[in-house]
Design brief:
The complex is a heterodimer of chains A (about 70) and B (about 270). By secondary structure, chain A is an alpha+beta fold. Chain A has two helices and three strands, in the order E-E-H-E-H. In chain A, a hairpin with a 7-residue loop joins strand 1 and strand 2. The longest helix of chain B has 29 residues. Classes of the chains: A alpha+beta (about 70), B mainly alpha (about 270).
């Protein structure tokens, strides 16, 4: 099947709580991401849940890679 | 919904014929949800991707839970039609024909998800818009849980239709079969049971109205894609049963029947 992209899933249990990151799903479209987020992270009675394609995230502090490419090549 | 129609507090306010029609509808709804849950569950490790496995599992749990909710309403009726033969005779079950056998491939799950699941949800919406309080007070949560099932079905219909030609052809073949079973649900012009429930205010729609509502719900899934719902489906109503809302009787496999009746665990002496 077609490979998708990662979507980050955020949700909150109460209106006064902030949206919190609850996990990721791999999906080939926004519709699939919505469904998969809903079914994968259904352990709480969320009042709000959103998904964000990972490429849409804007890095503020870049995560250091565990191993650099040049180390792998050597 | 009119203010007066909103006040059917319980079965005591219904006539005998309406109670029987309600019992039949509840049994067909709950048996079909039970079988749909079982069929989803059979694919909870066989879907094309991990997230779809989880979705099948989640949808299975909800369908089984909804069957139990509807059986609670059914059990309150004095004419509960479930008899002891349900443990021994598959013909006493009232699930839709498309669920008689396990899904042979993913296209069969997708077709049932898109068409059968939506059929049941449209029926529940009509009951929610109706007047029978034992139903309306239970259905809000059920319908909220159903919201994403249709999105899942529609997304997969589009994805499979856009796949290889053989995949789209297989999907079309399966859709043709399931579509006919779903249209049979609405029954013949007379004696379909739904008109009776509409007249009493239990449902907001008669058979024709409910069918229109159903067609309006599923049609957007097929806009601009390579598979379509067939027009002009002919149904031979002479073999149609108002209790099961289908032609013929269920033909479950032995293992499936043991699962849905609990015969396997009863033999272990750990249940009634």
């Amino acid at each position: 099947m077609a490979t998708g992209q990662l979507y980050e899933v955020f949700a909150r249990k109460a209106r006064e709580e902030p949206l919190a990151h609850v996990g990721t799903v791999n999906a080939t479209s926004d519709d699939f991401a919505r469904v998969y987020a809903r079914t994968t992270y259904d352990e709480e009675n969320w009042v709000e849940m959103v998904v964000v394609p990972r490429p849409a995230l804007i890095a503020v502090i870049e995560l250091e890679p565990l191993v650099r490419a040049e180390e792998l090549a050597s | 919904m009119s203010p007066t129609a909103a006040q059917i507090a319980g079965h005591e306010a219904l006539g005998d014929a309406t109670r029987r029609a309600l019992a039949d509808w509840l049994m067909a709804m709950s048996d079909t949800k039970h079988l749909l849950g079982l069929r989803y569950a059979e694919w909870c490790t066989g879907a094309p991707e991990l997230e779809a496995d989880i979705a099948a599992s989640a949808m299975a749990q909800f369908e089984l839970g909804h069957a139990r909710v509807l059986r609670g309403v059914l059990g309150d009726l004095p004419e509960d039609p479930r008899g002891p033969t349900r443990d021994t005779d598959p013909a006493a079950w009232c699930s839709i024909a498309s669920l008689d056998t396990p899904f042979a491939d993913w296209t069969e799950l997708v077709a049932a998800n898109a068409l059968v699941d939506t059929l049941l949800t449209v029926n529940l919406h009509s009951a929610m818009d109706g007047a029978y309080r034992p139903l309306t007070q239970r259905l809000r949560k059920v319908l909220a849980e159903e919201e994403y099932h249709g999105v899942h079905g529609a997304a997969w219909i589009g994805r499979l239709a856009g796949g290889p030609d053989a995949t789209a052809a297989r999907l079309q073949e399966v859709l043709d079969e399931v579509w006919a079973d779903c249209l049979a649900w609405f029954g013949p012009e007379t004696g379909n049971g739904l008109d009776e429930l509409r007249a009493a205010g239990v449902l907001a729609d008669d058979a024709a109205g409910l069918r229109d509502r159903y067609v309006a719900a599923v049609s957007p899934m097929f806009e601009g894609i390579a598979v379509q719902l067939r027009a002009g489906v002919e149904i031979e109503w002479s073999g149609w049963h108002p209790a099961s809302r289908r032609c013929g009787v269920p033909a479950f496999g032995e293992r499936c029947f043991a699962m849905i009746t609990g015969a396997g665990t009863r033999a272990l002496g750990v249940r009634d």
